[in-house]
Amino acid sequence: MAADSTAPPWRGIARHPDRRSEVGPVELFFDLVYVFAVIQLSHLLIDHLSWQGFAQTAIVFAAVWWGWNYTAWAMNWLNPSNTLVQLLNAVLMLASLGMAVAIPYAFGDSGLLFAGCFVFMGVVRPLFMIAAFRGRTTAANYTALLAWSALAGVLWIAGALLPPEVRPWVWLAAVAVDYAAPLLNFRIPGLVSAPMEHWDTDPGHLAERNRLVFIIALGESILLMGGALAEEGAADAGVLLALVLGFAALTVLWWNYFALAGHDVTGGEGGTGALRFAFAYAHALMVFGAILVAVSMELRLTHDHLTPAVVLVTVGGPLVYLAGNLLFLRSRFGRIARSRLVAAALLAAIGAAALLWPGPLPVAAATLPVLLVMASLAVLTARSRAAGGGPAGAPARG
Length: 398
What we know:
The chain is an all-alpha fold. The chain folds into two domains: 17-198, no CATH class; 203-386, no CATH class. The chain is built from twelve helices and no strands. The protein has helices spanning 25-47, 51-74, 83-102, 111-132, 137-161, 167-183, 203-232, 237-261, 272-302, 308-333, 338-356, 364-386. It starts with 24 loop residues before the first helix and ends in a 12-residue tail after the last helix.
């Protein structure tokens, strides 16, 4: 869709048409908070390694990701060199820091801090966009977005005020409202709506922002591995082997991602609806998968033998990542990637075999097969691109 013809009321607030894909320094500065947030998320799961802990981590991640995602989308239209935009990012950054600080006790005493910071971001961001672009389609879009954020915000705050045993269910409902809003075109019958075709979105900018935040998630693996080794003190042969395998797994995950989503993003479906799935939803799964991989690396460094929790995280990280792959390829190229389905089936089989094995198994018994599957997938994807086609399982682009 073409951009609005009228200039925004605030001089210099909008991006120059020729520089829409540029990622400004203030956006990179904003991302620094998410380095800390990812660390907090990882430790939340490590400290609560159970189904309940996984559910809590997923809910908290959903809010953290949505706060980052909506900020990245807003910067499609905002000039990163503008002083007001930079101040907005600073305010949102401070609120994100408050969320990150509250993560370990979000389901305890820090629930209101976590929810309050998230809801604050969800209200301030669209209010800024409405004021900056009043009279334009962008302002109308953000009016509809604000209405949905306010509805979800009521649930977030209510959940924070309710007892901890009830909070996860209320917050899960809040996540459902937040994530359903774009799918429903931010429509409230008789009041507001913002169909996807009304959002003038730049795919290059979104792709670069998502690539950068994925690298942040990968960087968490380095921090966790380094921290685990520092706590271990003298490293024996087993720890060094786990370190090498962990680093290899990290490299393979990076290779997989950039062979798939690290290049041209203008092929395939170009509408904002497709971009919404590719970046808002698919990348949520890929980033969460990378966080789970980071957690599995620390667990493998600190465990001599496989436990059910170690097996599930070791296999679960790549599986969640591949689910994001499938959604990304479906949204961009309109097809299911068979290579990802085969890899997911193999990973599930590896996990089932490790869980059902009657005796104790060394950590490498799960690490090596998972590494082999993901490395093979990376090679297949890279070769498909080198041959001139799309990613493995996607149609060739002519």
